[in-house]
Design goal:
Structural class: alpha/beta
Helix content: 55-70%
Number of domains: 2
Distance between the termini: 20 Å
Strand content: 5-15%
Strand order of the largest sheet: 2-1-3-4
Number of strands: 6
Shape: elongated
Order of helices and strands: HHEEHHEHEHHEEHHHHHHHHHHHH
């Protein structure tokens, strides 16, 4: 046991002292924070260029009927054909030409001409505006009185809240989008760490084998002790980096939020007061109450965050990372011991990486249907359970399913480690011979 500890210490310290470890430890949280903050920041930025779109209406029923925005305007040139608009497009100053055919009420089709690819916001605004106006025209054909007032009165926006009953009968606020995000992020992190640090085990074994250092090491320790020390040491490096990433990501996101989105740290009442002071207007108490009630989505998300069992998620993440890493690291150690260079690993990599790739595809299905049969069975299969079960956990699967998945994973990685040890002790000292699956099978059957 003392020898295994010394190998663990060597593997751990030799890697955490590398500049690459320090660089990735700092860059990782910066990238995670950027992925979370930059899209939110970009979403607040709008295209401020005013785009005027000429409408060539063959029906004469859409005149000034399309709603405009601050940056999207519509022009209705009279007495000008579509062909003339196209010929004079470059001098007209229009951004695009919207052609509405005479049979649009039957065909539901129109054409947007432009010399550049229109943005998604412009295309979607035109599409939605035409759809609403066509619906209004079709209803109007039924001679309904006060149609506009009726349409305004029936327009409804539903806010659907999710409440989950606990085993104790207490109600907890939840958010499906938040659960999907946590599950997807957890599954991808498990995949990333297993693949990254599992491959490090393989490279470490190959380096020691090709440099012949392993011949000196195995004169003092058993091959199994060497393999276990290497696997556990590199696994601890992964856990260390993960913990540092979590802490630094929280710090970076908090700092960026205060700098880029300082208003998010204010209460809705404070935001309303600050806006009134800046505008020089008197404070309207009713407006403040409306402002407090409006951001229901943010309130729901923050309320759901308070009810997320982060202790369970973090604990299960560490367990499934350790279990999945030990399982796949033993496979990577087999590959490393069976080859003489990293170029020779390709023939053995597919059986190891294929279950991880399958788990990623199943993960996408699991996000949409966490209680389905595919999600259930792949969360029990040990080769895919570290990723798939992490996606299911935010959706509160039954406790027995988590326990069963964990037990199967433990039994499997114990068996895989035992199998890897038998193959490793022979392959680590084999040189100059191309290994094959049949050769590895022979090594597994060798007796002590």
């Amino acid at each position: 046991m003392k020898k295994i500890f010394l190998i663990i210490q060597r593997e751990y310290l030799s890697r955490v002292r590398k500049k690459s470890f320090l660089v990735m430890t700092i860059l990782g949280p910066l990238l995670f924070a950027a992925f979370m903050v930059v899209p939110a920041w970009l979403a607040t930025m709008e295209d401020t260029d005013v785009k005027t779109i000429a409408v060539a209406d063959s029906t004469n029923i859409f005149y000034k009927a399309l709603p405009e925005t601050e940056y999207i305007k519509f022009a209705y040139p009279e007495g000008v054909s579509l062909k003339e608009l196209q010929q004079n497009f470059s001098q007209s100053g229009y951004s695009a030409i919207l052609f509405i055919p005479h049979n649009i009420l039957a065909s539901n089709a129109s054409i947007l001409y432009s010399d550049k690819q229109p943005s998604m916001s412009v295309s979607m605004h035109i599409k939605n505006s035409l759809e609403k106006e066509i619906e209004r025209q079709k209803l109007k054909a039924n001679n309904i009185e006060n149609l506009d007032e009726i349409l305004k009165s029936v327009k409804t926006d539903i806010n659907l809240r999710n409440i989950i009953w606990g085993d104790d009968g207490k109600e907890k606020e939840s958010n499906t989008g938040l659960a999907m995000g946590i599950g997807y992020g957890s599954g991808m992190l498990v995949y990333f760490f297993i693949f990254l640090f599992g491959a490090q085990v393989m490279r470490g074994v190959i380096e020691e084998k090709t440099s012949r250092i392993v011949e000196v090491i195995v004169s003092s320790v058993r091959p199994f002790q060497l393999m276990m020390g290497k696997i556990i040491g590199i696994g601890l490096v992964g856990l260390t980096q993960f913990v540092l990433w979590v802490l630094l990501t929280i710090v970076f996101i908090g700092g960026v939020q205060k700098v880029v989105f300082p208003e998010m740290s204010k209460t809705p009442t404070e935001q309303a007061l600050s806006q009134d002071v800046m505008s020089g207007q008197q404070v309207d108490e009713s407006a403040i109450k409306y402002t407090e009630a409006k951001p229901q989505m943010l309130e729901e998300i923050f309320s759901s965050l308070k009810n997320v069992n982060f202790v369970l998620i973090l604990g299960m993440f560490i367990f499934y990372f350790i279990g999945g890493f030990l399982l796949y690291a033993s496979f990577f150690a087999i590959i490393g011991s069976a080859v003489d260079s990293e170029a020779d690993t390709q023939q053995f990599m597919l059986p190891v990486t294929l279950p991880l790739i399958i788990a990623i595809f199943v993960m996408i299905n699991t996000i949409n249907n966490p209680e389905g049969q595919i999600a259930f069975w792949f969360s029990l299969i040990p080769l895919t359970s570290p990723i798939v079960m992490m996606v299911r956990i935010p959706f509160h699967p039954a406790a027995w399913e988590i326990i069963l998945s964990a037990v199967i994973l433990i039994i499997t990685f114990i068996g895989s480690t035992w199998m890897a040890g038998k193959i490793y002790r022979t392959g680590i000292l084999m040189y100059g011979k191309k290994s094959s699956y049949s050769e590895i099978w022979k090594w597994l059957r060798y007796k002590n």
